[in-house]
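Q: May I have one protein plus its fold?
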Amino acid sequence: MERWEQLKETQPLAAQMLTNSYEKDRMAHAYLFYGHRGTGKREAARLLAKTLFCPNVKDSEPCQECRECRRIDSGNHPDLHWIEPDGASIKKEQVLNLQKEFTYTGLESDRKVYVIEAADLMTVNAANRLLKFLEEPSRDATAILLTENSEAIIQTIRSRCQQIAFQPLNQNKMRDYLIAEGVSRSNAFLLSALTNNVEEALEMLEGDWFANVRKLVIQLTEVLQSKPNEALLFVNHQWMPHFSEKDTLQRGLDVLMLWYKDMLYEHLGREESIVFIQEKDKREHAMMRWSRAQVTACMSGIMEAKRHINQNVHPTLVMEQLTLQLQRC
């Protein structure tokens, strides 16, 4: 994400607040960007840093081509400090080192920017040191704190920051964003129905895991249609080896739910809501096996299976029970 105009497509309020502050020369000395993972907080922090350092800003947009912008992209700008958790937390020593850096004059100018990622993971001592830092702000220093859980940050720190919420992406915006990132249209439709987290969606596409999930879901429904007596064998020998962890099995059940939802949408004449957009022929064939009432019963069974997984019932037992239920629908 290289432009505020791009951020406005997904986070219009956050982008507008930040660009307005810049244009009116009313930048806060500290910001707290909060919202779910994948909503663009990190990209917005980098973009704000570029805007503050770039000498060629036009209409709030950094040029992306100057030495300052390129060094920020490469992570080598001497006056931009990015702090991430050291292990499971952000420690007092990291904040002390940051304060020490700020005692020096900026190498390029008097401006300095620091970003603290996962700020909710600061230890108590680190938070107290940061609070002292925020209480005595330098005019040319800008702090940007990023968090998924703003309530875990002490109130005295929050009160000294301008808080900016990053909202979850809606399904249409998520779909458009993924397509713009080069994701195939069919995968973008399905992923945007599974998550509103861009990072999570892109991570799912790494390797063959997601493609295999899609294939296994369709294969399971085809076995239930044409060879129902072999469904349990399929689940034990092909489905379960792919979903060996609780989280991955939950994701597989989510995709299975979307397949049955698509059949329900087809029954209801709501084709615009369908996410398996490439499988129309397979879906129409499946609808000869499952009526609207049967599809609804199958979806209830999948929801029950997901609850059982959360209750730590043995995954194989859960899937065997679900398969028998899907056979009876």
About this structure: The chain has a mean pLDDT of 92. The beta strands are 30-35, 80-83, 112-116, 141-147, 162-166. The longest helix spans residues 246-268.
